[in-house]
Structures are given as structure tokens and as C-alpha cells.
Request: fold
Amino acid sequence: MLPLPGSPSSSWAMFRARLSALFVGADVRVCTAFWLFGLINNVLYVIILSAALDLVGPDVPKAIVLLADIIPSFVIKLCAPYFIHLVPYSYRTLLFAAISSWGMLLITLAQPYTDGGTITAKMAGVVLASLSSGAGELSFLGLTHYYGPFSQAAWGSGTGAAGLIGAGYYSITTTTIGLSVKTSLLASSVLPLVMVMGFFLILPRGPLRRTASSKHLDADLEDEESNEDVPGREDRGLLADPLEPSTISIKSSNPTETSTSWQERFLHDLRRSRGLIYPYILPLMLVYFAEYLIQQSVTPTLLFPLDKTPFSEYRSFYPTYATIYQLGVFVSRSSLPFIRIPYLYTMGSLQCLNLALLIFQALYTIFPSVYIVFAFIFWVGVLGGLVYVNAYANVADDMPDAEREFALGAVSVSDSAGISLSALVGVLGGVEEGLCAWQVGRGKDWCRKL
Reply:
């Protein structure tokens, strides 16, 4: 913990020295590359959510966009940790960039709803971008295993910046500058190229090469040992690891043995995944369920008379809330080098309290000023970001080296699961529509003017 400047036990010189000590050993190229990975992998996701109102129109629940933007990501995060290790990181990066750009082009080139177009083609583009983002997140989180804790801190900060830059980009280009929705989204389709440049031009790939060389050496040693007399499983006892090279032949010429090897490895990974549910996956699910239900279903109804706000039209509330929320996320996701908060369930419970308070605000206007609501939206973002970075930091600290890469990727399913659940509740439960109907029935028809 850093001392406060000016306190009796500190001075500015000591404060600067301790601050510098926090970053001893940080590689600028590694931090830059992972910051860019976090930024670009998540920024299109945020832009799509910020553009939800303009993509589907005021008569379609914005949670529909959230479903298309998160369900594919959830599915790929649920399945990919068990096979994605077969694809080299370089190929993955190229594939993710291509799919993301293709998805944004589909969204951009589809006919807008104002001209009689349907949302089908747009949702297909959203699905592609979601698949790429989900696979990218679990891949780059796994990649941090090879580059140390500073890569994880840089990734977290980059994902936080993605929220701020994505929401701010869309708000500024469409509201302040006055660009069309199509032009704004089309410009964003080239952003995945930055991720490719980060991997091939900035990231030092020495750690990956050394790991590959080590694996080849281990394979050679296994081949040599396979020519010697090795005790069978019966001789090794009940505590033998079923995945040790002596009991599983990776290069077996017998198809049945190869099939058994893959089955045992898959079952072993499932057992590893179960141990991640309570300490890491559930608290992340809880906090993301609450904050995304707020963002997609509650904030569209947190409206005030225009003469009591800094806005000239009701359409400006939604992107402004999104930008303030993402500012909170960026601040907290950049906090990992400075502060660690291990109490994941406590923060998740606080997020649920925020959800309840903001629903009461939509129903009864318990806060008289929009600026108080701004503060609550910022706090929602801070809590979400804190749980995200501290959960993955806990995984990195708790897991042994052999388990860490898999665990980091497997835990990434939690945020998508929480967001998917919030979208289903938002759509099937009619949260936004119910809150809006309640307001209209009491003479506040502002939600109909979006």
C-alpha cells in the first residue's frame, strides 16, 4: 500500500520512490502490447453496446443487442479452453482480427432501420464480433501466463480503456462531431489491425519460443524414456497422475489409445474447472449480472426533464451514462499495481445493492438530480472493474504454473455468463419495458422520446 503524500511516515520523495518500485521489472514492450490487446479486443464490443439504440431503434429492447453481443462469446469461452491450445497464438491473433473486421463491416453495410431495413444482418455482424472478442479474451488472458503480472495489469487497464474509448468515441463522433452512425461504425472496422501489429511488431515473443523449445525437449525426453522399461500403472500405485507421459502415449500409433488420451485429458480439465467455480467464477458472474442489467435495462429509463440536465435531447442520456460507467471501469481496471481487494463476494453484493437503488430511482425518482445518478453509474463501473482485475490476479497467485494458463482462460467464461443472464432477464423479464410503462403511466413519457 502506498503511503499518503504529506503523512508523518512519508514524503514526496519517498512516495515517488515507492511508486517507482511498483514498476521495477516491467517491460515496456510487453505492457504496451497487452494494453493494446485489451483495448482492441474489447473496444468493438463497447462500441456496439453504445450504438444499441441506433442499431435497433427505440421500439426494440436494447438487451437484444446485448444478447447477440454476449451469447456467442459465452459459448466460445465455455468450450474453447479445452481445445484452443492446439492453435498457435499467432494464428489466433490473425483470425480474431479478420472476424472482428468482417463483423463490423456487416453491421455497417446493413440497411438502417430508419430506411426500412431489418436487424438480422446487423445481429449477424454483432455475433461475429462477439465470437472474436470472447476467443480473444480467453487467449490473451492465457498468454499473460508467459509474460508475468505486469502483462495482466496492462491487459486489465487496456480493457478498461476500451470501455472508455469505445463509449466516448461513439458519443463524440455521433453527438458532438455529428458523424452518421454508418460512418462512425465503418471507421471502427479497421481497429483490429492494431491488435495484429501489437502481436507481431511490439510483443517480444522470446517467452513463447522458450516455452515451445522446452516442450520439444520434454517430448524428446519422453521418446527416449519410452524405449526403456517403465513400470506400468499397477506398479506406480493409486497416487499416480493419469496424465503423466508414462501412462499416456501422446504419439501413440494406436487410435484407441489416442482416443483414450484425449478423453482423459478432457475429463481432467473438467475437474479443474469445477474447482474454479466458487472462488472465482460465481463472484464475477454476480457482479456482471448486476452491472449489465443496470447498463442495458435500467439506465435507458433513468431520465429527467431536459431543463434540469445538460442535455438538449433525451437520446443523449444513454451514451453519456455509458461513457461515465466506462470511466469508472477504466479507473478500477488500472488499479491492480496499486491496490488489491480480495473480497470478491462483498463487491458483488454491493453491485446488487446498486441495481436495487437504481431500479427504485427509475420507479420513484429518489435522487432529485441527474448528477447524483452520474455518481452512482461511475460507482457501478468502479465495482465491476475491481472485481475483474482482482479475480484474475487471485487466479494467477493461487494457481500453480502448470494450471495457470488453463485457469485464466476457463475463468473468463464468468463475465460472459453473468452478462448473458442479465440480457435474458432483461428481455424475458421485460425490465426496460416495464420500467418505461410505469413511468408513462405516471405522466413521465420521456422514455418514449428516445
The chain is about 70% helix and 0% strand. Confidence is low (pLDDT under 50) at residues 216-259. The first helix runs from residue 12 to 21. Residues 82 and 266 are 7 Å apart (CA to CA).
